Amino acid sequence: MENFVVSARKYRPDTFQTVVAQASITNTLKNAIKGGQLAHAYLFCGPRGVGKTTCARIFAKTINCTNLSAETEACNECDSCKAFNTNRSFNIHELDAASNNSVDDIRNLTDQVRIPPQMGKYSVYIIDEVHMLSSQAFNAFLKTLEEPPNHAIFILATTEKHKIIPTILSRCQIFDFNRIGVSDISKHLEYVAQRESVDAEIEGLNVIAQKADGAMRDALSIFDQVVSFSGKKITYQDVISNLNVLDYDYYFKLVDQFQKNEVPDVLMTFNEILNHGFDGHHFITGLSNHLRDLLVCKNAETTQLLEVGGETKERYRQQAQSAESGFLLQALQISNECDMQYKASMNKRLLIELSLIRIAQLTLKKK
Ligand SMILES: [Zn+2]
């Protein structure tokens, strides 16, 4: 087997421009570099897998590059950039505070901080998961943070900003990283698929993007998982069966059946879903999401809240047009009630069936 490099590493961005969906942050960092206004400490906050460490590394490389481009990007060709790109640079130090959180670990680091870099202008210290530092370690670190030497820049990264003590917060320039939207993740997966000569259906990539819940790193590892299972061709069906995701076809079908008041068909569809091994609660939250998405499509302005792409979006639009807002709202209320009562219910299947019957009869009364 040829050397397999996981996509999350292989396609890790190496310039600000290639970072996905964090433009406001990368622009601010670039402007600071361009204007020569670097802070001594930065705090990168946000959920996992959205590019905090990646941006920290790009930042470290860029401020040490000897031949910055007009767009304030690292050249990737000078000695310093080459050292960075092959993980040989002495200008970057990374500490994972999740596993190195003692006072001694921090002392080792602060001892190093005093030594000026042999090459390049700055030594960058990245402390990942900084909220994991013990309180003693925090205090030991605070001294260095109060009087850092000119060549030292700290980038602290955390998924839990609220756990950082105020004395640290007040000394950092804070950047909040966003969850990455489904369409941005999808687009990036499309790019990776192309580069890997994988023929992938957009709908399939959308499911992966949804499953990743805003984290690009997760999206890429799920992508790898699906590729190892399905090979160079990925279909929507492959993805949902591999990831055990309920096919949204069922929801489209159910809403059609609801509107035609076809109670027996509705119950048979639900039975089929259970027979495929899907959990009832999972089904009902999925139904609520589907109804919510249809409501969102009722209005041109809110349609952008719909996190699906291409043909699927059109399908949502069409089904939304066929349904009245009043019906969708009532149906959503019923499925939401069902969702809330689900855990306490002694007969869960009956609870869902009753809810489905009520929804299927909503439009009946008017006729
Ligand atoms: Zn360079």
Textual characterization of the structure:
The structure is a single chain. This protein is of the alpha/beta class. The chain folds into three domains: 7-176, Rossmann fold (3-Layer(aba) Sandwich), CATH 3.40.50.300; 182-243, Orthogonal Bundle (Helicase, Ruva Protein, domain 3), CATH 1.10.8; 248-360, Up-down Bundle (Zinc Finger, Delta Prime, domain 3). 53% of the residues lie in helices and 8% in strands. The chain has helices at 7-10, 23-34, 52-64, 79-85, 103-113, 135-146, 166-169, 182-195, 202-212, 216-230, 236-243, 248-259, 263-275, 280-296, 310-322, 325-341, 348-360; strands spanning 41-45, 92-96, 123-128, 152-158, 173-176, 199-200, 233-234. The longest helix is centred in the C-terminal third of the chain and has 17 residues, at 280-296. The relative contact order is 0.09. The mean pLDDT is 91. It binds zinc ion (ZN). Zinc ion is lined by residues 65-67, 74-75, 77-78, 80-81.
Give a short overview.
With 367 residues, this protein is of the alpha/beta class.
List the topology elements.
Layout: H1 7-10, H2 23-34, E1 41-45, H3 52-64, H4 79-85, E2 92-96, H5 103-113, E3 123-128, H6 135-146, E4 152-158, H7 166-169, E5 173-176, H8 182-195, E6 199-200, H9 202-212, H10 216-230, E7 233-234, H11 236-243, H12 248-259, H13 263-275, H14 280-296, H15 310-322, H16 325-341, H17 348-360
Parallel strand pairs: 1-4, 1-5, 2-3, 3-4, 6-7
Helix pairs in contact: 2-3, 5-6, 8-9, 9-10, 9-11, 12-13, 12-14, 12-17, 13-17, 14-16, 16-17
This protein binds zinc ion.
